[in-house]
Amino acid sequence: MIARSSATRLPSTNNNNGTSTPSSHNTNTKHSKAPPFWAGGAASCVATFVSHPFDLTKVRIQTIRRNKHQHAWRRFQPSKMFKIMWTISRTEGVRALYSGLSASLLRQGTYSTIRFGLYDKFKWIVARDEKPTFQQLLFCSTAAGVLGGCFGQPSDIVNVRMQNDGQLPPEQRRNYKNAIDGMVRICREEGPRVLFRGLGSSTNRAVLMTISQMTSYDVFKDMFVTGFEWYDGLSAHFAASLSAALVATTVCSPLDVVKSLKMSAIAKEGKMSTFSMMAHMYKTEGIGSFFKGWTAAFVRLGPHTIVTFLVMEQLKDWHLQWSQKDATADKATATTAATTTIA
Predict the structure, then answer these.
(1) How far is residue 144's CA from residue 128's CA, in Å, rounded to a whole number?
(2) pLDDT by 10-residue block (mean), the chain, 343 residues
(3) What is residue 288's DSSP assignment?
(4) How confident is the model at residue 238, as a pLDDT?
(5) With DSSP H G I counted as helix, E B as strand and the rest as coil, what are the percentages for the chain, rounded to 5?
(6) What residue spans do the Solcar repeats cover (predicted)?
(7) What pLDDT does 203 receive?
(8) What is the distance of C-alpha 163 from the center of its chain?
């Protein structure tokens, strides 16, 4: 299976059945540059303003402690998630739904910029203007996920703590002013190593997220455009990003829960290894504990993924158009200069 790597939207033509399909004479258009490195990070920051309240609710649900005898599947109900959001806004204020926004934006500016930027860069290196194979996409997404997870870890620690602060007893709340204040206080009060607590589970989640989100997006996009002969535009991008969000939420849920628990844990619990914590969760809460907050995670990741990919595709289009205009202008200037010299 192969996936499309082109950043352009190909003009459509009508076949005998009236179906709009990409015109074949443009499929081999060559691009001399990789997509802009910053596009994915910028798009993710835009999407954060939409998804942050759902992300906060997801963290709150994941860090609630339950006993094993509770009905596990009740935690998936959408009504529970919106009830928690309503409770937060009523008891802590509407602004509380955006607690940790600065840390979330910092995280997207590092974690997502590196993931998306390196993924596109690696795709361009291994395939240039050709379609990368599925194996190449897996390699690119894995490498980008590892590096993105490592660089985004400190801001992710602060993000989770700020989001979870509201449901802690007053004497246990950290009350970080913003992301930078959180990182400074963690280094001063607990030591710099705490900023990398849970790095293993966080990096594993970043790899799974990058594979299940970006690789599946390219695969679904290729399926809709090539297989179903959709036009490479808004409809195909929306369907592909929604499908990718479903895959990513399900694949990443277990490690996402473990990551949230480790990052928000007190000192003793935070020292547990990933596998020890997973075994403890299974023993005390059952298999359903690995999917705590799935609905909240999907409601958060669905809009975030859709907005991210739609904005990113638009940014890539604009960047390509500007590059082509600059190239045309440079060519015209060179031609004029050559003509003047000859004259």
Answers:
(1) 17
(2) 41 42 40 75 92 83 56 49 84 86 88 92 85 90 92 87 81 86 92 86 84 92 92 92 92 79 59 75 80 77 91 90 77 72 63
(3) G
(4) 95
(5) 75, 0, 20
(6) 31-125, 135-223, 232-318
(7) 86
(8) 18
φ and ψ at residue 18, rounded to 5 degrees: 80, 10
Q: Give long-range contacts, CB 8 A cutoff, 24+ apart: 89-96.
A: 92/166, 96/166
The residue with tokens 């958060």 is 300
Give 83-88's long-range contacts (Cβ < 8 A, gap of 24+). Answer: 84/57, 84/60, 84/296, 85/53, 85/54, 85/57, 88/56, 88/57, 88/60, 88/166
pLDDT of the residue at 32: 52
Tokens representing 221 are 């996009």
User: Which among 137, 134, 130, 136 is positioned nearest to 29, based on CA atoms?
Assistant: 130
Looking at the DSSP bridge assignments, the partners of residue 13 are: 21
Residue 79: predicted pLDDT: 59
DSSP 24: G
What structural domains and CATH numbers belong to the chain? 31-319 (1.50.40.10)
pLDDT at position 223 is 93
Q: Which helix (H) or strand (E) holds 20?
A: strand 20-22
Query: Both tokens of residue 106?
Result: 């910092």
pLDDT value for 11? 39
End-to-end CA distance of the chain: 56
What is the predicted pLDDT for the residue at 341?
Answer: 67
pLDDT of residue 71: 44
Burial category of 58 from C-beta neighbours within 10 Å (exposed 0-12, middle 13-18, buried 19 and up): buried
Strand partners, 12: 22
Q: Which two tokens stand for residue 196?
A: 């990398």
Q: What angle do CA 160, 161, 167 make, to 5 degrees?
A: 105
Say which amino acid occupies 286: G
